[in-house]
Amino acid sequence: MELNKKEIFFYNMAGNNFQGLFLQFPFKHFKSKIISIKKLSQFKEKNLNFILVSFLDIDNKWNNKNYKLLNLLNKEHIDLINNGVAKLLIDYSSEGWNLEYMGFSKMLDILKDKNINGNNVYFTCADLKLKDTYDSLYRNLFEKINIIGINVCTIYPRKWEIFDVDVENLRPKKFVCLNALLRRERRLLITELFRNGLNKEGFITAMGRSSKIHQQFPNLQYYPETHEDADRIFPKNEIPFNIKDEKIIQKYYEKIILPKLPIFTDIDFALLKFNNKGVDEQYLNTIFPKFYTDSYFSIVTETSFNWNTDSVFDNGVFLSEKIWKPIFGMQPFVVFSNTYYLKILRDLGFKTFPEFFDESYDEVEDPIKRFYMLFDEIKRLCSMSKEEIHDKYCSIFNKLIYNRQKLLEMLDVDNFKNSIIKEFK
């Protein structure tokens, strides 16, 4: 179907406040009309019709044990879906993690109970590994639905300004490691960087959303950390991680790192001091060129790093703005995330850097082993002189040019929409 020559109709069961895939992202630039309808009778068979449900709204209902949103699908809705007049679009395109917690399996049970034709059901999500995971687990359990992975966070680099990168002169730092929300793996990594004396080798931020940063920068919008206890790395009520020196690490975090928070650099201090945006918005919409022109490689701490390998749907790959920054800033990178993150990047056409790092960590299932394989690579790079790292950096510069150009092509609105259009049958 040539989408640009058609009208897109969507019936929004999620409520008027939910913008979703068609309005939130660059679909607003389509040549075709996108029309929100109030009555199912307004659907036209020749057009592309969607009954739109927000997965986030579904979650709210599940938390109350009601499952009302999908259960609102009546015989009229289901007939339209099963007869191919409309597609059921369950939209989670704004996120790509915590799927099991959010109730992905329960969603499938409801679809099965309602005898909805899975061929006409589309689940959009920023987890680019979900399609393969779903295919392997649900092939024989439920009629297959369509999973569409969306690079949602490419909306942020569109706002960044391109800057030049110098390869002639040595740089003052070896790495950059930027952290906003203080998830557990980030607290552990920051602690290990300081505990091993590597904080002197790079730019490290650990902003968090705590009241401390609000006190230091009262002009910032304040969103408290709600889902984790940032006072500890290893919560007391959880099963021990069996990490070597776990008690020592925890004590170091409490006595050395916690009093330092929030951690920021001279580079971002000025902007934080005089800007009234929230920390998240600050780092989503802004790239600080000096972080990348004054260091050689990036330590990316992604949104999704699952410590519980039994939770299959939480082991996804979510490419957030955190990976686009080193690509835009022309740096090689290591990534603290789930398995096959690098593979998915390569599948998208980007190059990774085995010349710099042992990238076998990408296939290691055990999260603790993977974490310390990554950390050992950071230590190894930091043990080199700046001259050695500079030479290695210059040797891969053509790759860095290629990656930035590949990202810029991906940011093109037409390329973005076409990559999704082809998924709708």
User: Distance between the terminal alpha carbons, to the nearest Å?
Assistant: 7 Å
Indicate the proportion of strand residues: 5-15%
Quaternary status = single chain
Q: How many helical elements?
A: 19
Order of helices and strands: EHEEHHHEHHEHEEHEHHHHHEHEHHHHH
How does the overall form come out from the CA principal axes? globular
Helix content: 25-40%
Structural features, described:
The protein is of the alpha/beta class and 425 residues long. The protein folds into two domains: 3-150; 157-412, no CATH class. The chain is built from 19 helices and ten strands. Strands 2-1-3-4-5-6 form a six-stranded parallel beta sheet. Helix 8 packs across helix 10 (246-260). The longest helix is centred in the last third of the chain and has 16 residues, at 367-382. The protein is globular. It starts with 7 loop residues before the first strand and ends with a helix. Residues 1-5, 61-67 and 218-228 have low confidence and may be disordered.
List strands and helices in order, with pairings:
Elements: E1 8-12, H1 20-24, E2 34-37, E3 48-54, H2 55-63, H3 68-71, H4 75-82, E4 87-92, H5 99-102, H6 104-113, E5 121-125, H7 130-138, E6 146-149, E7 175-177, H8 184-195, E8 202-204, H9 211-216, H10 246-260, H11 266-274, H12 279-285, H13 289-293, E9 297-301, H14 321-328, E10 333-336, H15 341-347, H16 367-382, H17 386-395, H18 397-411, H19 413-421
Parallel strand pairs: 1-2, 1-3, 3-4, 4-5, 5-6, 7-8, 7-9, 9-10
Helix pairs in contact: 8-10
